[in-house]
Design goal:
Oligomer: single chain
Number of helices: 4
Structural class: mainly beta
Low-confidence stretches: none
Distance between the termini: 56 Å
Strand content: 25-35%
Helix content: 10-25%
Radius of gyration: 19 Å
Shape: elongated
């Protein structure tokens, strides 16, 4: 069964509201020993077979001139019979769909792999998050973070179609300035006056 690596940069440009990848800087700066996820697209999958297998690769080498990486497959493929655990894979930054941020890394967040509720207004061209707060999470995968552009009215917020559920690290890729606010505990709230403004913690805030 033949396969190709998905160009996730191209996919992200086609579906900017639903296909999120690490920043270009992060994808270009991966080092030996880091883990990255690649999408192995299956050519002519049989009925019942997936379009692609998403698997993790440990980087074993990099060529700074060509910006190509070499790595070994750390997953055993379920459908692809021409790939095996431990096989060597060559790839480029445009193929890196996800990275693992480990504790101790400056970009690590305890809630990084958890989800947040994000107003669609934040994702519109020219908009950004201006108001955010964290409440007690509803479930294990919920971070408790709620993010808003700040100008939504009650009718907008009451429509579930206007809220996205997004992974914290995905949101961080779009706006790295959220790193410090995302370290806040339940009950924390932050605001800023503009998309490039400084975040200010709102003290003694309570949800109305």
């Amino acid at each position: 069964m033949e396969w190709t690596l998905e160009d996730v940069e191209a996919a992200s440009r086609l579906y900017p509201e639903s296909f999120f990848i690490p920043s270009e800087q992060e994808r270009n700066a991966q080092q030996i020993g880091k883990m990255v996820r690649l999408h192995f697209v299956i050519s002519n999958p049989a009925e019942g077979e997936p379009r692609a297998e998403r698997m993790w690769v440990e980087i074993t080498g990099q060529d700074p001139m060509s910006r190509r990486y070499t790595g070994i497959l750390t997953n055993a493929p379920a459908s692809l019979k021409t790939l095996h655990l431990g096989d060597t894979v060559e790839f480029e930054p445009r193929h890196i769909a996800q990275t693992i941020v480990r504790e101790g890394d400056p970009l690590w967040l305890a809630v990084g792999e958890k989800m947040a509720l994000v107003s669609r207004r934040c994702l519109e061209p020219g908009n950004a998050v201006h108001w955010m707060y964290r409440e007690a999470p509803d479930q294990e995968q919920d971070s408790g973070w709620r993010l808003f552009a700040g100008d939504e009215d009650e009718a907008y917020l009451n429509d579930p179609q206007n809220t996205r559920v997004m992974r914290i690290y995905y949101i961080m890729d779009m706006d790295p300035s959220l790193l410090e606010p995302f370290k806040g505990e339940a009950g924390a709230a932050f605001e800023r006056a503009s998309r490039d403004g400084e975040w200010v913690q709102v003290r003694n805030w309570k949800r109305g």
